[in-house]
Amino acid sequence: MAEWHMRDDAPLSSEEWRQLDETVVTAARRVLVGRRFINLAGPFGVGTQVLPLDTIEGTEACTHPEAAAGCAGGECDVLHVGARRFLPFALIHKDFSLSWQDIESAHQFNMKLEFGPAAAAATLVAAAEDRMIFEGLLSAEGRQSLPLSDWATSGNALNDVIAASQQLADCGFYPPYVLLVGSVLYGMLQRVYNGSGHQEYELVASVADGGIFRSPFLPPGKAILVSQGPHNLDLAIAQDIITAYLGPDGLDHRFRVLESVVLRIKRPGAICVLE
């Protein structure tokens, strides 16, 4: 049976496919932000269309003497899967075309084929993945929230992040913490903190010890602090970014950069939105 991506039908050599894959992956990595702080799960296979999402209930730790005996008498809040639902994978894709004349010229004169359209398609796919991730974090039902102060005033950013980290810790969501901001707030973090000679970024990074990341998909008036860990959230992958051949398009040849992913927010309380 032929492979679903139909690569053998394309007028490209194995070396050209290798170069194309390298171009696509490199272009995508330059854009992707979500994968830099979210744990990945999979790949589960391109045919996987849904994946379970478990809601874990029970949060209190056992502290009385009977804890070692299994919490006899039902005094402990036992962690368990309270609900299970199934999330559909999102199929993200962008098509591009390679000119038949460019392909023939590369083969005739033993030149490297130009894969600019593939890189552009990969960039758009990566951007769509990040948009899905950040919109999911901002809209997660059960997320925590705190007001965002004016970061133009020195010290406010640090105070906001400390407050968010304390709120997360009080609710049982522990470090490492990741801070997510847009370009405007990221720029404000570069200012010197109260004449100390240190950027506020450095001080905030000591609290957001999992890293500070900026994304164009966060609006100027919002920031997010996330407690990291696959028990809190992950990005499940059915099919990682790959290029498939669609077939001839007139004399030219059409390809598709695609992936199949879903964001699983297992414990939405691990997300604190500053807004």
Structural notes for this entry:
- By secondary structure, the chain is of the alpha/beta class.
- It has two domains: about 5-60 and about 75-140 and about 235-265, Major capsid protein gp5 fold (2-Layer Sandwich), CATH 3.30.2400; about 145-225, 2-Layer Sandwich (hypothetical protein PF0899 fold), CATH 3.30.2320.
- About 30% of the residues lie in helices and about 30% in strands.
- It has six helices and eleven strands.
- It has helices at about 15-30, 100-110, 115-140, 155-170, 185-190, 200-205; strands at about 40, 50-55, 80-90, 90-100, 145, 175-180, 210-215, 225, 235-250, 250-265, 270-275.
- The strands form three sheets. It has a five-stranded mixed beta sheet. A four-stranded mixed beta sheet has the order 1-9-10-4. The chain has a two-stranded antiparallel ribbon with strand order 2-3.
- β9 and β10 form a beta hairpin.
- α1 (about 15-30) packs parallel to α3 (about 115-140) and α4 (about 155-170) packs parallel to α6.
- It is flat and about 65 Å long.
- The termini are far apart.
